[in-house]
Amino acid sequence: WGCDSVRLDGLTFCNSPFWTCHFYQCRNLDIRNCSMTTPARPLRAPSSDCIDLDVCSNVKIKNCFFNTDDDGVCLKGGKGVYAHETTGNGSVDSVYVTNCVFGPNLHGTVTLGSECLRGTHVRIDSCRVDNTCAILRLKMRPDTDQFYSDIRVSNITGRCGEIIAMRPWTQFFTLEGSGRKPKGRVSDIVFENIDVDCAQAVGHMHGNPSDYVSGIVFRNVKARAKKPFHCVYPDVSMHDVQIELQAGESAPNPDEQFEK
């Protein structure tokens, strides 16, 4: 909490009953060559996120292995209609995730939410996925003003559930009698140089009715999937994208199995 210039190198974290590593109001984090795991059987470890970045900035995550029973890297910062006015809440920015491997127990590779106000300048590069969850997971709260922008996902290989999953998230929903109408804004997200097998769909982007989405780009993407890309927003462009639909049932969606 409140730390500056922290380095974790070569550490092993295992069997955490809750968030494995939680960094709050920290900056200049360097996390490399670490392993973070929890078992899926015989007992699950729900909400055991590998890394939770809570109001943090300038974070470098490199050469790590993640395989817990929730999200790999999760951006937080607060939730609720008064979250932007609450002391201690804030944004997460300048996050760099490179050369990492994301294992099969995960429910999200890199996730913004469900308690994220503002996530900007996020880079996910040269990683391998070996799971059935989304590479980029955006949890959209109808009771929180959220802003997700300037995100790059590049040079990703392996197998996943979806390339992107943007869905409403209503756990602990409350407007606290305020009458406010929060909005979510998602902009400037680029997926580039991706070659994956998707156990579900290529992607799913359908948030809350008040959410605004712009500047979504897919470039040089190859995906084999059970279902095509589902998106209700017009400002999405694709360049050199190859999608091969495959027969068979899609894998269960983590969002539909559990809410944490």
Short description, anyone?
With 260 residues, the protein is an all-beta fold.
Number of helices: 1
Shape: globular
Q: Quickly name the level 1 CATH class.
A: Mainly Beta
Strand tally is: 19
List the domain count as a whole number: 1
Instruction: Write the CATH architecture name.
Output: 3 Solenoid
Query: What name does the CATH topology carry?
Result: Pectate Lyase C-like
Unreliable segments (pLDDT under 50, ≥5 consecutive)?
none
Q: What is the H/E string?
A: EEEEEEEEEEEEEEEEEEEH
- CA radius of gyration is 17 Å
Strand content: over 45%
Task: Please estimate the helix content.
Answer: under 10%
Gap from first CA to last CA: 23 Å
Q: Main sheet?
A: 19 strands, parallel
Mean pLDDT: 95
Helix-strand category: mainly beta
- At the fourth level of CATH, the homologous superfamily is Single-stranded right-handed beta-helix, Pectin lyase-like
Notes on the protein architecture:
By secondary structure, the protein is mostly beta strands. It has a single domain (4-257), classed as Single-stranded right-handed beta-helix, Pectin lyase-like (Pectate Lyase C-like, 3 Solenoid), CATH 2.160.20. The protein is 2% helix and 58% strand. The chain is built from 1 helix and 19 strands. It has one helix at 254-257, and strands at 4-9, 12-14, 21-24, 27-32, 35-37, 51-54, 57-62, 65-67, 71-76, 91-98, 101-102, 108-112, 118-130, 134-140, 146-160, 162-168, 184-205, 212-231, 236-245. The protein has a 19-stranded parallel β-sheet that branches. The longest helix has 4 residues, at 254-257. It is globular and about 50 Å long. This is Exopolygalacturonase. It comes from Muribaculum caecicola.
